[in-house]
Design goal:
alpha/beta; 13 strands; 14 helices; 2 domains; 7-stranded parallel β-sheet; two-stranded parallel ribbon; Rossmann fold
Length: 375
Amino acid sequence: MIHRHAFLTGYPGFIARRLLRKLLSADDSLRVSVLVEASRLVHAQDDLRLIERQVSPEAAHRVQLLTGDVTAMDLGLSGPEFREVVNGVTEVFHLAAIHQLGVDRPTATRVNVLGTQNMLDMAASMRKLRRFMHFSSAYVSGRREGVVMEDELDAGQTFRNPYEATKFEAEKRVVAASANLPITIIRPPAVVGDSKTGEIDRFDGVYHIGLLLAASPVPISFPLPGQGVAPLHIIPVDYLVDAVHVITEQPDTLGRTFHVVDPNPLSVERVFSRVAGAAGRKTPRYGVSPNITKALLRIPGLERIAPVNHQVIDYLNHLAFYNSKNTMETLEGTGVHCPSFETYVDNLVRYARDYWTRSGSRTLVDSSRPTSRLS
């Protein structure tokens, strides 16, 4: 009998923390080695103490924190640590990546492409490896419009930013390695808070747009950027983690790619309306051009309240639809499904408001928490 031993990167990022708890709770014999950057070690140790209280002391004791870096040779591990990993690990969950839309190309390449290649090189030496779970992104589709299938990757698309381009390059390397490694690829869209509690670790990306309505200290009537007809691809973190766990447990998911998305995404206009309603604000009635919206985001006072990266506006006007046939077939009959945004928007808004009250800050971003390589 092979004893399960998982190797997890991207910890203590929000998704990685949630996935670690799911894995530990689902299998009381699973060991997990977790790669943690030195700058995040204290945060990882704090979270491990939370696992001890929230899950069980026994679960926490099955977690081994390893200080390292996906961009370093042998991930920065010592010789004994490296040998223990390659000789004992049975499954890999690679979440470490840089996600900021404004990241420069060299940094994104080093973390997303070189970091992934280093993980693949290590995986090639793992004697007991049964699965390499690579967390990619739905946005490897770049500027493509129309329906994007799960088995499609390189369609000659162009990209909006280094994040998309380097996640694409990383996935190309993963696909190439799948000839010799047991690989599964996960492509999520933007991930928001927990559907039941609203909990999220940072407010950025698409999520910020709703916060302009929900959590600002003064009433703000935010215009609808564009016509509002494009689908807004977001999923709650609990759905992502639950779906990934189901996919991990099925042997026929090896060698396949999964769009873990909302199969029935609401339009941008409907999402804005639901957020505004939950926040007790006026619903944006008129659309303005994306360029005008970007200009509004440069107003000094508004940037101080919610510093949204201007590139996010482009995602609110992108007519791409992500087919999720593989995911839907795998989840069928398991009870795991993506909840409708309308069923959890109140929880997201409530958490955002509570966060604002707790923080007492003039910004909605906790700048003390580096997020560059965390999922």
